[in-house]
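If your schedule permits, I should be very grateful for your opinion on a structural question. Kindly check, if you would, that the fold set down in the tokens agrees with what the sequence suggests. Thank you for your consideration; the sequence and its tokens are set out here:
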Amino acid sequence: LLSRRQRQMCIRDRLSDIDKIKFYEADQKKVPILSFNIGDIPSAEIASYLSEKGFALRGGLQCAAVTHTTLGTIEQGTVRFSPSAFSTPQQVTALSRTIKIFAANN
């Protein structure tokens, strides 16, 4: 089984070839969270699309306005992926595929 951190790194690796994706990363030794944006697309729009496809990711400011001010994402927010102990490798693969399709079409 993959750890939460391994799942987070797996999706980051799979998405890193998308030109218009930008990652916002904290100290990876502490939290297995990956925040990202795709171009100038509002994070809520990306999260809504992913929700329609069966994935539960958060879009927006995630109750961290000061952090978003520092990151320069106060207007756009970010999409946040935080795998659980129950996230399967197949789900990570399906999510990365779905994000790639969204990015290619927008």
